[in-house]
Design brief:
BD-FAE-like_dom, 2 domains, alpha/beta, Rossmann fold, 287 residues, AB_hydrolase_fold, 9 helices
């Protein structure tokens, strides 16, 4: 029995440390390890899901969230788009957790998921994220970002649903901002927006207004940094010029970065510079 008792103590200690490791804690330092949570569902549709990237040593007081919304003209793309930006995020937003949102896409053949399905999904996703911050041991402070259609959805949520999520700053890359104006750009945008919004600006003007971020800008709007190329042939730079004028009129903190000679999508070095500028801008508003 004298030899057996030390074995029991050794077994108990081993089980204790194994339990701590299984719960995601370093048994020696008490620090949380990095965790990737893929395809975390916030809704019943398979595309209503998140990829969540939680850093090591995170805490509710020191780890804000960078939430990214993918582009694709509201008909294409998925949340894996963030993968191409993750290294930049880790470089320029190193103390953050990252979340990429998937959402329902408009289906051209069937007409399913017309707007505002995408807006509603972003709203639901952010409500879900807010409900999980304690479980993930991260801050509730949010930087909301997106590119193209994702930039539109980020701005629309930030201005229209500003009370949902503790959003401190907005980042948009070549975003649509005023859809009735965008409708006039070319035949392709006319056909796409007519289907997506259920008519033209003349037949359903409320749909265009309700879906345009600039309709909801006011003096209390969230600080915004946005980037647009002068040679963009998909979303004209005039969309960001309209946004700048509205933000200036409302006296909202903002920064408009014009990218000379580039189009709908930037060169790798330009993306790196944009992330660096966006991180510096957002740092002014994170506690």
């Amino acid at each position: 029995m004298k030899n057996f008792r030390p074995l029991l103590w050794l077994l108990a200690i081993t089980l204790f440390f194994q339990s701590c490791s299984e719960n995601g804690e370093d048994p020696i330092s008490g620090e949380l390890p990095a965790i990737d949570i893929l395809d975390d569902q916030y809704g019943s549709n398979p595309v209503q899901s998140l990829n969540v990237y939680l850093p090591a040593r995170r805490s509710s007081g020191e780890t804000p969230l960078l939430i990214y919304i993918h582009g694709g003209a509201w008909i294409d793309g998925d949340k894996s788009e963030f993968d191409s930006f993750r290294a930049l995020a880790e470089t320029y937003f190193p103390e953050y957790a990252y979340i990429s949102i998937g959402y329902r896409l408009y289906d051209i053949p069937t007409g399913n998921n017309a707007f505002p399905s995408q807006e509603e999904d972003i709203l639901s996703a952010i409500e879900y994220i807010v409900s999980k911050t304690a479980d993930w041991n991260v801050s509730n402070e949010i930087v909301l970002a997106g590119a193209s259609a994702g930039g539109h959805l980020a701005l629309l949520h930030g201005y229209k649903h500003s009370t949902v999520g503790n959003i401190k700053s907005l980042i948009a890359l070549f975003p649509p901002t005023e859809l009735s104006e965008l409708f006039e750009f070319n035949l392709l945008t006319q056909l796409g927006l007519t289907q997506l919004l259920g008519g033209t600006p003349e037949t359903v003007p409320g749909n265009y207004s309700d879906s345009s971020p600039i309709s909801f800008i006011g003096p209390q709007s969230i600080p915004t940094i946005f980037f647009h190329g002068t040679e963009d042939t998909v979303v004209p730079i005039s969309q960001s010029e309209i946004l700048e004028a509205e933000l200036e009129s409302a006296n909202v903190d903002h920064e408009f970065v014009i990218i000379e000679g580039q189009g709908h999508g930037f060169a790798p070095l330009t993306y790196a510079e944009a992330f660096e500028q966006a991180a510096a801008f957002s740092a002014n508003y994170i506690q």
